[in-house]
Amino acid sequence: MILLQLAADGLLLGAVYALFSSGLTLIWGMMNVVNFAHGDFVMLAMYIAFFSFTLLKLEPIVFVPLAAVLLFALGGLVYYALVRHVMRGPMLAQILSTFGLALFLRYTALWAFSANFVSLPSGLVGGVYDLGGLRLAASHLIAGFSALLLTLGLHLLLTRTDLGSRMLAVSEDRVAAELVGVRPDPMQALAWGLGAAATGVAGALIALFFYVSPEVGNSFLLLAFVTVCLGGFGSVPGALLAGVAIGVIESFSAYWLGPATKDAVVLALFILLLWVRPQGLFGRA
Amino acid sequence: MKALFPRAGFAAGALLLFAAPFLTANPFYQRVAALTLLAAISASAWNVIGGYAGQVSFGHSVYFGIGAYAALLAYAKLGWPPIAGLPFGIVASFALSIVVGLPSFRLRGHYFSMATIAIAALAGILVTNWDFVGGAIGVMGPARARSFADLLFRSSLPYYAIFLCVLAILLLFTRLLQKSRMGFYLRAIGSDERVAQSLGVPVRRYKLYALLISGAFTSIAGTLYAVMVGFVDPNSGFGILISVNMVVMAALGGAGTLFGPLIGAAILVPLGEATNALWGARGIAYVAYGVIIMLLARFSPGGLAELGRFIVKGWRRRAA
Amino acid sequence: MSITRRSVLLAVPALAVLRQRAEAAAPVKLGYIEPLTGNSAAAGHAIKQGIDLLVDVINKPYPQLAPLPLAATSGLPRLGGAKIEVIWADNQGSPAVGQSDALRLITQDHVVALLGAYQSNITLTSSAVAERYGIPYLTGESVASNLTERGYKWFFRTTPYAPQFAKLYFDFLANVAKMGKPTSKVAIVHENTDYGTSVAQSITKFATEHGKKIFLTISYNANSTDVSPQVLSLKSAKPDVVIFISYTSDSILYMKTFQTLGYRPPIVIGDDSGFSDPSFVTSVGNLAQGALNRSAYAIGKSGSLSYKMNALYKKKTGRDLDDSVARPMQGFMVMCDAINRAGSTKPEAIRAALAATDMPPSELITAYKGVKFNKEGQNFLAYSMMTELQGKTYVPVWPPKEAIAKLQLPFKG
Amino acid sequence: MLLEARGIVKTFGNVRAVDGADLAVEEGELVGLIGPNGAGKSTFFDCLAGNLAPEAGSIRFAGLESTRLSPDRHARLGLARTFQVPVVFAGMTVLENAMVGAFLRHESRARAAQKAAEALEFTGLAGQAEMPAAALGTAGRKRLGIARALATEPRLLLLDEALAGLTSSEIETAIGLLARIHARGITLLVVEHIMEVIHRLTRRVLVFHQGRVIAEGSPAEVTANPEVIRAYLGRRAKRGEA
User: Per the CB 3.0–4.6 Å rule, which of B245, B249, C82, C175 could disulfide with C25?
Assistant: First the structure.
């Protein structure tokens, strides 16, 4: 029973990782820019969820899309104001800019919202299901299924729609895309917006069962990088698989080897895997 | 480089570096000056592999941590003055470069960066759970100086002098390297590995050389930090922020240029201290810090060295 | 104690004179180092609010707080009514920054004494600077035992420290055992930074020295995004008592995960920190009913000093005063009182006054048995009691002398 | 025989990019390698230069078994190459770019600079020596690629579409350059699309199709070969459908 519970917890945790990483992988893959502020985008989305509920009394069904919309705008803004100017520069300039953005967002939040930990009331979206001893929180389940839906949605958008293929075209060859009449800037702004919107959905959903604080994004960020890298930059389904794999590995290694070493297990496996397969688990050669 | 630092300017700069902390009797400014040099050492060390050879490592804190732990463990376990741990740190950094660095060189671009982040994070976790080296609690240096060799000074000036010597050696070394075949090879690797290799550059070997040098000097920086601060724990030795700071400073000043990391450190360290002194109490030091970094990246993506070169060039053109 | 009393008594008739001199006297500057950004920022800001309140209490007359030293008068009477001014510094969670802070406060701001710095490792490095400069350093908050083992001349600590908590827990558990409840299987679940590790070590050490065994120790990363494996480990091991040494975020997660996985240990003890954070009570208080905590502070009976202080704090912040804020406040009071008694801002005079401190319980905000330093600079009268979360507040339940509510076991969640 | 390859196979997933290709180049020759797009020429080239390790077959260069040697070992043995996409070391000047090549046989900086300057002189880039390499146009970059390779003082130079993307007058200059390189005694293996170039430069041409050499001979012989015509036409017909 315990093993089953561990597996279930691991799967759901993995779904959260995937959820957390989907926006990151989209932006990363589309424009080869590492968004160091990604964790802080999630943090903002979590605060949006928190304040919409506590101040405006909005229900999750309203504030999740709201977070997506607001983050979409933020993503577009960040693209036009910052990323556009550094993305074709050296990799280091990109790192510098998004790192500066991360500091700015995180500590503005600290200043505006205070460092206190807050959280949405537990049971906002239903309680706990007991399936013959296997106990699952509704909020986790919702997050898990949303991760699946979001992944599927983004994947379909990128592979099956005209818009998606245009975005991919720009990401593969900006100049060539321009030659065939796709204006790159709006496309890339859109990619940033979409990535940020996915992040918004993720953050609002995670807020249903996780505490919120200005530093919260940081606790996920390293694992999000690992998830994206394992999944192959830009591959949303890859991130889902990688996230779930990491969640399950963490869950079991925490139980068997002790929780202090669970990240060590994941990181060690990650490093070894890269040494053997330098393009990531699902990445193209 | 020649255009930006003509001989006279260079001499003036060097003189200023020597004299800077003596111009003020203020101990706090002196400490900031010393910390600036310390940061410049690690950023310049990072620059060898990250700037010249273009292998953007986010895991250099691992070398910093090794150096810092070597110093304080030499004290805690053997009763030696912390500085005596320096050679141990260097040797350990060599071992790490060979065992962990070499296999990572197959990785390109972001994959390399991510692997190095993971390696440093892993090292941090291992040290946290390893009681022999103090675990999470960390290791303390001597509480009070037993002899001069403990290098515990109330004033920051002696530290400044030591750091300046190390930095001078490192920069001299980098300058020689820059002019030599190795410097060309590293820059070629940083620019395009495939082409470099086709021109006969043994890429992996040269990357390893660069990492050995870079890691060793970063470990020296760690040792010096531990000697000065007298304490290290997993977060202050292996924390990701330490790596990020090296990268940010080098990138800001100009990665792959001789004085870029020094310039970056000379801006960011005092800026960090100033924002903390002015607004730290309100907790918004980092807001200002973040905005400034963003603006710099936005308006000078190649680092300040590039901006400087640009200005000098424009100025010359007008003069001519 | 006699000195303190006298200073208060003397101050009252001399008030008129003092008021005149107060305008002339330069403020006494104290440096306070706290984590105002980073993972522990919430704690740092809460402490800052408490200290700001005390500064007001000391600088303006608050006769209603009567037995509290320096409350009735304005400023420090023996320094001509000089006002207290606190210069704050953010340690950013870094030992090196803490050191820079200390140096800056000493040499730039010319503070006469330092306080801080929350995280034990930062207290360690920043107090080393104070020691080199010969400036008194007092911590009312850091509990790692090595701080007072360095033979420092200028370092003082008012708070109880780790080994004392260990004793408290085992004394309490022995008492519970007498009530017929099993307490032999004690599990420790601790976060793995220096705080959790050092407290866990102290408890384990105390247990072994007293012939007891720790049944299970789980160390975990405080930034964990998920704690269910730990809870499952507990669920299958079935300990009688679980001692959590946790920060806020992880404490919150544990309570939520208890609920999700439907498990409740019979006795839950939280080692202050996360469990004491007001955010813990507001966000998961309803899932943590019956959680025990150590505390050197209780709101107490109406009319008591601690009660009045809580009222002021609550008015200012909207939250109840808790142990993790009250202990630093106590330390700050001791420091200000010592400076007043020294009648001077010379470091050596302040140090001597600190060393001679003898404060009776009646003058304290906390439940310490008094404040008196041994030669290591540790307040050997420091003391904590067991409290239990009942409703929205922690109430003292043990020892019986301090108890104002009945102990309710088991942990209800 | 300076370079000899036998039965080279290289696959990517299910695609057999090179499928049993053979090749032999004599010292002093100038050989052309042609074939339709996607015939596997570049992959074959990468195998010859050590950039890719073939799954089967063997390569001998200058009398040594070189199949699994790294590209830098190839360079040291005297095999230099250029790339289809003309990449320059962007942070360096034109001269410094060439010096990277020259350092292979001259450790002293002064010597390397001298050799590099010679290579630039030879390729007609001497005037741009102090320019940042990134400022060069396509033709300049291609020439710099050749200069860099020449600076390694090779016995054999592999040129991967060195003339693609050039204007007709630039092509004229380039053809002259290739002829002069050959005249210096350097063996050349040229992958080229433009038939005209092949006609004017080479006496022996290999035609590559579906991963192997399907025809060999003088340019005239090869263009008359029905199999070659089919290979090119089949390709075109298919493209027409699509």
Answer: C82
